[in-house]
Amino acid sequence: MENKKICYLPMYIVDAFTSHPFAGNPAAVCLVDSSTILTDDIRQNIAKEMNLSETAFIEQYTPDESFSESNHFKLRWFTPAKEVMLCGHATLASSAVLFECVKNKSDKLIFETLSGQLTARKQANFISLMLPLNPPRPFQLVLPDPEQNIQAILYSSSTKKLLIRIKDCYTRSFIEQLKPQTDKMMSAHNTGKIAGVIVTLCTKAQEQYDFVSRYFAPWVGIPEDPVTGSAHTVLAPYWSDELGKKKLFAYQCSPRGGELRLTVKDDQRLEVAGTACVVLNGQFLLQ
């Protein structure tokens, strides 16, 4: 019998944008040592096996530095269907693994990604990420009964995200009760121009949040993403202009739900602060 070499990859599951298990957005985080070579096909198969909205792969930027000593890393994200350019919640999850599980000694982490250089900072009660802003622009889209409940439609070309704002006369429960038919969404827009749809609403004055949202991305294998950092790179500049404020408190009202504290910076960056809860620590056996 042939002896197969088994590679043990440290693997974690982290609930991002929540302080307790079974809420927020779960992401898998895999530590890839510099001595381990993973092809893109293997990464994609691992993401399929983990079957979460995203699996993050962290590698040392400098091969001879450890995960606990270095503050500079490479970071990539895969859905079960494909690699993506940006994933906020999996970046938060990756930061939590490095800070809490690996006991990284730095207060600031630097990630080299397909979206450029991202940073994460450890604060007293949160981890804050610096992400690029992706302001949306007005967009013409033919929809059935467009005046019934939609106030505005915008599009972010840099992220391929469509933003649909619901009229202010509706409440949060309207968004929570939405049941989109994702198969029809995909067949109606199959040109590759749209990668996800954000539905958002301004909350009432007595509520603690400035706005709420949900995010649907069946085009990349995610019928609904529970809490989405990248969607808020589109939402934050829009609501900052609409509400006339730089600091925003947001809630993504998926069934799991999660809170995001947002600060729109003058240098076209977005600070996203949130908490994360590590729920699984194990090994992925690769033969």
TrEMBL record:
One cellular-component annotation, GO: cytoplasm
GO terms assigned for molecular function: isomerase activity
Biological source species: Paralvinella palmiformis
Keyword Isomerase: yes
Record keyword Disulfide bond present: no
Active site positions: 54
Alphabetical UniProt keywords: Isomerase
Protein name: Phenazine biosynthesis-like domain-containing protein
Domain of life: Eukaryota
NCBIfam families to which the protein is assigned, alphabetical: PhzF_family
InterPro entries in UniProt: Phenazine_PhzF-like
PANTHER family: PHENAZINE BIOSYNTHESIS PROTEIN (PTHR13774), PHENAZINE BIOSYNTHESIS-LIKE DOMAIN-CONTAINING PROTEIN (PTHR13774:SF17)
UniProt similarity note: Belongs to the PhzF family.
Gene3D superfamilies registered for this protein in UniProt: Diaminopimelate Epimerase, Chain A, domain 1
Organism ancestry: Eukaryota, Metazoa, Spiralia, Lophotrochozoa, Annelida
